[in-house]
Amino acid sequence: MSEHKPQWPEPGDLVMATIESVMDYGAYANLDEYHRRGFLHISEISSARIRNVRDFVRENQKMVLKVLRVDTEKGHIDLSLRRVTKRERIEKVKSWKKDRKGEALLHAVGEKAGLSKDEVYQKAGLVLEEKFGLYAGFEKAVKEGAEALVKAGVPEDLAKIITEVAEERITIKMVKVRGVVEVRCMKPNGVKCIQEAFTSAKKGHKAKDGKVEFHVIAAPRYSIEVSAENWKQADELLEKTGEAIVANITKAGGHGVFKGKVEG
Predict the structure, then answer these.
(1) What is the pLDDT of residues 180-211, one digit of tens each?
(2) Which of 76, 114, 131, 158 is at a distance of 20 to 30 A from 58, taking alpha carbons?
(3) Residues contacting residue 2 through CB under 8 Å, at least 6 positions apart
C-alpha cells in the first residue's frame, strides 16, 4: 500500500502524478504514490516545440511521468513526460489501478476481520504484496482458494476472509474451448467404468489450470469443455483431459478416442 512504499522514488521509476501548478517554464506535480512534489521542466514535456505549456499539461491532470533525478537532501525530484513511451504509460496506469483495487479489497478484509488498516496490511497485505502483488494475491485466492495463501504465509483465518472478499468482488475473465471424445466399454459394469474414466480425468488436473466440464452429445460421443485464463492454457488442459479419459477407459478394458478440439 502507498503508505508502506519507500519514501522516495528512484531515478528511472514511472510514477503516477497529478499536475499541481503550471508555469511558462514547466509544471509542479504531486506524486500520488509518494506524497511528494516534483518538477517537470518545459524541456522534458515534449520533443516538439512548445509555445504554450498548457497545450500539453493542465492543473489537476493525472499523468504518468518518469523520474530523472532525486535529491533527498534538497527535496528535489526532476520529472519527464517526453521520455515515457506509450507502452510504459499503459502498463503503469494498469498497474496503478490494480494497486488501488487491491488496497480497497484489503480494506474490506480488515473491516470483516475487525482489524485496522495497518494491522491487516502487516498480517496479510505485506505477504500478498511480496509473494504475488497485492491485487494478484486476491486473484490467486479466487483461482486456487485459501490454501494457496496459507502456504504463502497468510494466517488461515485471514486467508479465508480474503478468499470470501475476492470471490465476492473479482470476476476472472476466462476463455473457453471444447473437444470431443468417444468412449465405449462393453463390460457388464461399462457405464460405471466410463463415469470413473471421466471423474478420474477431472480430478487429475489442478484447479489453478482451469475448469473442466463434461456433457453427453450422443453416446458414445461426449463433449469436454475447458475454461482457462488464456488460449494456450485452455488448449493444453483440453489435450491432457482428453488423453487422460482415453487412458483411463483403456485401462478399464474399454476403448476411447480423443477427437481433438472443435470450433464453436
Answers:
(1) 999 999 999 999 999 999 999 998 877 777 88
(2) 76
(3) 32, 33, 34, 35, 99, 103
